[in-house]
Predict the 3D structure of the following.
Amino acid sequence: MTTIASVLARGLDTRAAVIGTNVLDQTGPTFAAQFPGARAVIVADGNTWAVAGDAVAQSLAQAGILTDEPIVYPATPTLFADDHTVDDLTARLGATDAVAVSIASGSLNDVTKLSSHRNNRSYLNVCTAASVDGYTSFGAAITVNGVKGTQECPAPRAVIVPLDIMAAAPTRLTATGYGDLIEKIPAGADWIVADELGREHIDDDVWGLVQGPLRDALADPVGLRKGDLTAITKLSEGLIMSGLAMQVMGSSRPASGAGHYFSHQWEMEGLGREWEPPLSHGFKVGLGTVAMCALYEQFLKLDMTRYDIAARLAHWPSPQADEARVRALQSNPVICEASVIASAGKYVTSAHAEAWLHHILDRWGALESRVASQVLLAAVVEDMLRQVGAVHHPAQVGLSLEDLRHTYYQAQTIRTRYTSLDTLQELGLLNTVVDSLFAPGGYWHTRPTPED
Ligand SMILES: [Zn+2]
């Protein structure tokens, strides 16, 4: 299996990752090696400072690094990664030439990533929880004018990954990282669909970086909940590798499929944003994973030998009709305009529709068997999420089954990236498949409320 060290040697934005127990004292030497002669400024919040602030400051001092007064945001309410926070930190970093050393588990890492980039600097992050794969990915998840999206910026130059500290982090944060990672299972199936249909080929090397360690990283949800160090190590390495794979690929395709789009839709709508702590990315992604695994079960039951291409062509939507469909699904004007553009980017014209449908049917057998060997049953994923302490039912986040049903359709519209939702939409079968999940005997119909 490819090691993290060998991936770092490929000349990515991220050049160093120190992973282990008792490694906070490596912060100073790592900083000195990556930013020779530079000043440092620690960026933390009250929680992360309490966990690692003194040790990081001491390590920087011992390495002879000059430091500014630390920038420490309040512990509560949880720091919100929006344009105001980014503007604040961008200005504070702009007032010094110091390189940021963030001590962060999620939002603060994103804020530091973008604020450093806006000052034409890289930075180093000390990870405090196994909560996200964004530590080693490019791009920052920031809410601008009330709508969350990804802002372009490079990944950190270096990360310190103190496994003992991550094992002692609140279990909620570990469960969040687990939710983010488990989506790589249906995301892999989405990539298989795109590959088999010739829409986006699989890079075997990158595929292996994410999918190679994945099952093992997810194998011990009970141990993760207890803070077992071996389990935390595997989860953390899976998350770090996922971020690095995105850097190698120059895209989030290896780590994000339609299960993530459920989360993106809810994030853009601001679901759970005002909660304390706010509803996390990984909790939403975990729920999206159950949703997509349930969909894949129905996808694999489709009998395409009876599929009627002529009947579908008779109802093939015009570009105007397809746009109207997208607009009807998205009531928020900002999300709506973005979805119209994203959906237009993958719309198949009527001139190409017949050949495209034949192509899907020609490939169906191969596609079906490859997908079947990739996905897990939704009930299995639900169990794993329950065991780790993550969200696994829409009612846990205040959504009704009807809300969830609507999200299946919305998730298909918000990105141009091709997933199985698009195949079903093109085949005219998305309604049939989604309806079956909520009809008597369907996955969601049999689960009106979360089981404990
Ligand atoms: Zn994610």
Observations:
- The chain has two domains: 4-166, 173-230+241-438.
